Amino acid sequence: MIKCVILDDELLAISYLKLLCEQIDHVEVVKAFNDPKIFLNEIDQIDCNVCILDIEMPGMTGLQVAELISDYKKIIFTTAYKEYAAEAFDLNVVDYVRKPIKKERLAQAFEKAQQLVSSSQKKDFIEWNTNIGKTVIFTEQIAYIKTSEIDSRDKDIILNDGTAIVLKNLSFKNLLEMLPAKDFAQVNKKEIIALSSIKVFSTHEVITTISADGENFLRLPIGEAYKNSLAKLFGK
């Protein structure tokens, strides 16, 4: 089931979108907003997986809103203006639907969203675009993940055998949603470790079983914001 939230400054546009959504199977409109600021204040508390955003709105554009939530919500843009298409897709959104919106075109956008939502469910593997193409990676083979030093939007995965794979354009938030929570933990803003790769856990750092230079093991500093969640994992 797709649970969506609508944001459009025009009440007639909201009513029309609701009507179309009601005619599409497995789509539920959870809530609708006509003010971007109210939307942003409430979106974190709403159980939804897709947001339909109008691009042209007074005060704050849909593009600006999407920049704040696209890491953890799937975005479908609607607009009467074609010139925003390139900028919209730079944000890695699901789709860009031109007004006047037709039911069939909106249904296509929801179909894309459903595929992305389904693929982000916690499984024993993740599937994503990498430096070697579309790749399936079994989570039990993952030892360590870090933010790429070349492009911070990418993430470097190190497998148990030392193989390195680059996940393209994927946030830590979305990545953690794909990984089984019982097997992985984020230790700081730039690093995630498989619990099976932890050798020693202390107040300030994690010592891993991963070789750093042939003689020493990789040590990861624990960020202040992650200390409590890590302590809970180890029953502290």
From TrEMBL:
It comes from Chryseobacterium defluvii. The modification 4-aspartylphosphate is found at D54. One of its GO terms (biological process) is regulation of DNA-templated transcription. The keyword DNA-binding applies. It comes from the Bacteria. PROSITE patterns: RESPONSE_REGULATORY. InterPro entries: CheY-like_superfamily, LytTR_DNA-bd_dom, Sig_transdc_resp-reg_receiver, WalR-like. GO terms for cellular component: cytosol; protein-DNA complex. This is DNA-binding LytR/AlgR family response regulator. Keywords: DNA-binding, Phosphoprotein. Pfam families: Response_reg. Residues 3-114 form the Response regulatory domain. GO terms for molecular function: phosphorelay response regulator activity; transcription cis-regulatory region binding.
